[in-house]
């Protein structure tokens, strides 16, 4: 991974303000410390629904409330087979959650600091004092080092290894269940996970405090984006300018930054008819709040037309982007302007592949649109803090466990996120499932479970 990574981890923590800071100095004057998150390090705030969800997963597995009330928490997406997120509390990575598609469930992967927040009530082992140092050094727990094992432990479980005095020696995966562990005389009981130490300093704070702590950071980021716009717009100055607005946080931050330069810039929204209700509402809110012109390009008919011939889009058959977005956009520009400039909320920290993307480009399919990415160098946390600072109306879906706007059934989504959307918005899925069923029926394909697996658009994240 090291060779692919071209960004710098910007995420730090201020132990005086108890907030994340995207710089080595807090606006309060204190020095901050770096948080060793996994690259690309695009951490975002945990909203109340995220916190409830993380706490539920940790409660079920360990009887722990991982994120205590009044504490800020961040989630950092880690490259994984499906969806995995590190959880940052008190400036430490206290654990992760991971979606396991095979069992269709979310799993908690704690770090030793989680035991500082609250002691595990299940899925723990007590280890002999003599074994503690070797566990801390990353070696596995062997049978002679085990004192006792909580009866809830099954083979393959994530477990805490606690000292007789109640401190955490390490975490890892149980090789055997509780009964066998107690019976064994030799061999490996727990495969220890190597821990990257990070310091846990708890303390209450709010997102308003975090905005204050990042005041200088945000001023700098805003100025740099303004300078980018000023430096790159010259060759396209005569063209029609718009902000490509998706209803997502990145396009909102882009709009905010662009308005600092151009005041009222029209927004361009491609309405695929497959958006969350909250996205349509957000487009209206933003248009009204800032008194903007909104060009809405409806593409729903084109989607269902192509659906008839192509079937539901899938990971390896993503015809939908071209049908629902690129082609209608190209036609719109052609008909009304000939050529336009669009400000787009693309960011390099979103993924490793985005790191390599240019900041000014033309899509090979929409050559009549010059794209500029003013917030290319921002992380998700810059975006959120800036939105909070500007008190901008953001899409409420973010508060309900969805971190990626756009078509709800997007085949590029992680299975874990699709599963959460399914649970939270059964109405959306019932309608979608019905359409898929109808199509399958027409194709005369029996919906055997293997077909269903193929058609459920799951898998790892695609950029
Ligand atoms: Zn501070």
Written account of the structure:
It is a single chain. This protein is of the alpha+beta class and 463 residues long. The chain has 2 domains: 41-192, PUA domain (Archaeosine Trna-guanine Transglycosylase, Chain: A, domain 4); 214-409, 3-Layer(aba) Sandwich (Rossmann fold). The chain contains 15 helices and 20 strands. It has a 6-stranded mixed sheet. Strands 17-16-15-18-20-19 form a 6-stranded mixed sheet. α5 (207-213) crosses α12 and α7 crosses α12. The longest helix is centred in the middle third of the chain and has 18 residues, at 215-232. It is globular, with a radius of gyration of 24 Å.
Quick synopsis:
The protein has helices spanning 48-62, 114-117, 129-136, 178-183, 207-213, 215-232, 249-262, 277-290, 300-310, 320-336, 352-355, 380-389, 415-424, 426-443, 449-455; strands spanning 12-14, 19-21, 33-34, 44-45, 73-78, 84-89, 92-100, 105-110, 124-127, 141-142, 146-149, 158-162, 168-174, 188-192, 240-244, 267-271, 294-298, 340-343, 360-363, 366-372. It has 463 residues and is an alpha+beta fold.
């Amino acid at each position: 991974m090291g060779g692919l990574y071209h960004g710098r981890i910007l995420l730090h923590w201020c132990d005086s303000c108890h907030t994340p800071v995207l710089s080595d100095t807090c606006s309060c004057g204190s020095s901050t410390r770096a948080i060793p998150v996994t690259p690309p390090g695009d951490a975002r705030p945990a909203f109340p629904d995220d916190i409830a969800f993380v706490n539920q997963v940790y409660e079920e597995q360990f009887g722990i409330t991982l994120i205590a009330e009044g504490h800020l928490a961040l989630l950092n997406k880690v490259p994984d087979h499906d969806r995995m997120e590190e959880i940052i509390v008190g400036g430490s990575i206290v654990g992760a959650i991971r979606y396991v598609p095979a069992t269709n469930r979310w799993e908690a992967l704690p770090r030793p600091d989680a035991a500082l927040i609250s002691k595990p009530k299940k899925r723990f082992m007590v280890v002999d004092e003599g074994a503690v140092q070797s566990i801390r050094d990353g070696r596995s727990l062997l049978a002679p080092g085990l004192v006792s094992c909580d009866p809830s432990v099954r083979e393959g479980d994530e477990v805490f290894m606690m000292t007789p005095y109640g401190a955490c020696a390490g975490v890892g995966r149980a090789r055997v269940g509780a009964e066998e562990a107690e019976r064994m005389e030799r061999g490996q009981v727990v495969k220890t996970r190597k821990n990257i130490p990070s310091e846990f300093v708890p303390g209450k704070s709010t997102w308003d405090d975090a905005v204050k702590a990042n005041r200088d950071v945000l001023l700098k980021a805003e100025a740099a984006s303004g300078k980018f716009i000023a430096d790159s717009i010259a060759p396209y100055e005569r063209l029609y300018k718009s902000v490509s607005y998706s209803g997502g946080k990145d396009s909102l931050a882009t709009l905010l930054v662009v308005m600092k330069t151009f005041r009222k810039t029209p927004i361009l929204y491609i309405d695929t008819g497959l958006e969350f209700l909250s996205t349509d509402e957000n487009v209206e809110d933003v248009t009204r709040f800032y008194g903007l012109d909104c060009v809405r390009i409806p593409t729903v008919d084109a989607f269902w037309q192509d659906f008839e011939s192509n079937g539901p889009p899938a990971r390896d058959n993503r015809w939908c982007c071209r049908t629902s977005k690129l082609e209608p956009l190209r036609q719109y520009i052609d008909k009304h302007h000939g050529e336009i400039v669009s400000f787009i909320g693309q960011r390099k920290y979103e993924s490793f592949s985005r790191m390599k993307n240019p900041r000014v480009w033309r899509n090979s399919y929409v050559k009549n649109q010059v794209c500029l990415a003013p917030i290319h160098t921002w992380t998700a946390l810059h975006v959120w803090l800036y939105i909070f600072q500007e008190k901008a109306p953001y899409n409420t879906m973010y508060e309900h466990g969805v971190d990626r706007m756009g078509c709800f059934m997007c085949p590029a989504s992680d299975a874990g996120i699709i599963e959460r959307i399914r649970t939270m918005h059964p109405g959306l899925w019932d309608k979608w499932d019905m359409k898929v069923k109808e199509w399958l029926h027409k194709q005369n394909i029996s919906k055997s479970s293997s077909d269903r697996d193929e058609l459920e658009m799951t898998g790892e994240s695609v950029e």
